[in-house]
Design a protein that fits this description.
Helix content is 40%, strand content 24%. By secondary structure, it is an alpha/beta fold.
Length: 427
Amino acid sequence: MRVLRGRLLRWAGSPFEIGDAALAWEEDGAVAIEAGRISAAGPADAVIAAAPEAPVSRTAHIIAPGFVDCHLHYPQTGILASWGATLIDWLNRYTFPEEAGFADRSRAEATARAFFAETLRNGTTATASFATIHAHSVDAYFEEAARRGVAAIGGRVMMDRNAPETLRDTAERAHDESAALIARWHGRGRALYAISPRFAPTSSEAQLEAAGALSAAHPGCLVQTHLSETEAEIAWVRELFPWAADYLAVYDRFGLTGPASVFGHAIHLEARERARLAEAGAAVAHCPTSNLFLGSGACDVAGLAAEGVRMGLASDIGGGPGFSMLATMRAAYEIGQLRGTALTPAALWWLATAGSAAALRLDGELGDLVPGSAADLVLLDPEATPVLAARCDRAESPSELLFALIMLGDDRAVAETWAAGRPVHRR
């Protein structure tokens, strides 16, 4: 056992439900770690008294839950910052050619190494990623995550139409290869499988039916896909599925809308879709950096949360142009401002930690510092740069301090990243 002592960020609930009272801040706090998990967290005196034999390390850094990125595409690491396209153009011009290269297993392995190096450098300790149609791209992702000891959720993309021939499968092959990957990886170490039809336009009805069958057979697996990212995409779905009342109705029909579902984006929703998401217990992954980069639109985060939709935060690499969850929180704040519903610092940090964990059905395991949870931590340096230090020195509350880190911080503010109770990155 060991104890870390410093300023501590924990949660007493959701800021969308109880406001700033959700932020359980300890100016002099501590967290006790044993066998990769948190055994105690709270005021330093109480934690240390409960573990009198444990060595105590004091830090000037803020001890916070590791960031949880609940929607991204690790194979797109190599095409970050590709200029100028709307969603469909971007897929055809950059994404599909890059993913076709993953037929080479060594490319998948090299990309997984680069991906996890960057996520950990930015304080992200858990990711939910799409792979490519190549089964070995899933193996590369989970193998590298296991090597580093981090939590990873992911799955093989299912696509049998409206994609290059080299990236199309069949309903049967997608089902069978996904089932084999579930058997190989789901629940192995810190790996969890997510059934992953890319989005409705790239899957036939037969393939969506196969995805639904997988979900019914494996209720412990998540379902990850995309929903209503752009108006052009929605119009395309209307053409492809003329029988559907709206975009979400397509997923509904095939059993893909439920408490295991995580829908990326969900920007342009009809009233029925909003109500159905809440009713089904489904989650939305808010991807603000990607939405700004591709000009997709502005998700109504505050409104959806108020209606009971579970919300998480995501970088959406590589539509999102960077790995930093601090930058992603910053973009979420700016989008809220544009909508007239600016999110508070507590709400932003909650979305990037406990909110994303809950979206992935991993609340109690990730995203908070509570006894029994994984000891996944990020140690943040409020003096990482001169301008950040100057602003943090003038902060009159924890909320001001956290907001300064959002607006002025970057990977330099990430002093250390811990996974399962051990440092996996130091600046």
